[in-house]
């Protein structure tokens, strides 16, 4: 009798008995001249295993994830491995159990369930324990287990090779915990939940990865309705939307909120929503008494596995007001160095608490993880320690913003002393203005939230300085809502700090996006307060405030705007007596904006002359201001258009668009393209206008410009 892979021979050609055994046999029997009964005891034969627990009773969405799982597991010529990745509580276990139930018929060899202990990252569970457990479940008695780990793995693979089976592995942290279960049976499947940074190595074995994201709002509402009972069914869409937003799409949090809803009276729904909306109460609200599996408990398991330095960094990162944080700021928050942050971040990403975007930036994998880190910091560090961490991070970020401002904007009026921030540091942008502007765009959320957080913390000097440096982004890309909010918050911080110069600068700057947003009354209030704050300021600042006063007046009283630009030019000419560059540039700006006011007033010839003069002035500066020269060229094209000189308008606007595109000035490029599209349509070339309008729409939409609707309507008109 032969079992397994061994080959036995019972006798030779001469009739003599011979005992030969080749290969690996579980049981080998040789019999000659037997006259009685023979009892053979083998390793046993188990029923087809179906060990994976049932699928969850309430399962929503994940359509794309199930489709990918079906594609990966559907390959019939190999062993198919799919590794699920995601934050704790994201629903990895629910998905693999859903897959096991949905694809059961594909695996006649059954389903095997392996659950590694994740209680201690320092002591990874040995896969041999589970290899042995699975062999026993498959019917192999202890006396037939090979004596070595290699032998047991070979025996397991031989068993699994008999028929395609699905192995579900939860809590794996290392490829060595998965590889013993890779079968040779075509069509076999292995589903793994990833809790370790080394699992991407499984791609060498043909594994595919799938990162689970939070549920969208529609799926979140569906889960609340499925689990929340009569209270959820009776709740209005407003309550449901608020609960979904507070849980930020995390399935575990949504399930907990639904259980609480199910126990609520109709009057209790509003207090429940308010409790979850309060960041200080949210995690406690998601940990009701008597429920073992809560968000805090699940995150506590991951946190408990961290080394002390990684745990300290986890808590320190929660001091930062934005989910995204660069390695330099992270090092400042943790009072360590970038090299240590990179090493510790591997541990944090391995615990699924942090994720990296591959460019030395990190973010918490979910907003509730960030709240967990903040609560642990509150319990562990004093308020002074947390405030000091935020200050260190903010000052590091301010230094980066100061470099970016200088590279992008060059010489300009600043109240911030950028040298105080950049001194002793190397320029991270290498004088590359496009790279610096790209960094500012990437840090858009940090600029906005950083100003707000600094003001809330009473760090008023930090808040207004960051607000002014942020205008290096807004003056080029024009995120008008961000600019208005950040500018007014920064101005209020400057006032609180007793810095009238900074207040005047920021209020005058903020009047511009407020005007663009059509918030005329607030824009007027800000520019009038700026004028009062600048009464005793130096000439250059007073001239700048007059410039922004004129830009506001262009929309309400063009003639008064021209008079404001005249005052601005005269002040700048006085500045030029002791500051040649800034005085000359300020005067050129006054001429440029006066030309725009001429065009608005219908004085096309004056507008053409002023735009041409401004362009010459900007190019005559040392170094030339190419950006403003391109904008002056666009104004020249605009003036030609108003005068009906369309061929000249098309020429100048086309040249301006190319110059602004080359400089990466997307907002001003869009403004020129909008005018160019109008000119092309008037010249009888609407098809040529369409690409320009599509680009304008994209820029306006991204920046929150309310004029996006007008552009969309114009596109529809030309397409019709």
From TrEMBL:
It comes from the Bacteria. Residues 517-547 form a coiled coil. The keyword DNA-binding does not apply. Residues 1-20 are annotated as: Disordered. Keywords: Coiled coil. GO terms for molecular function: ADP binding. This is NB-ARC domain-containing protein.
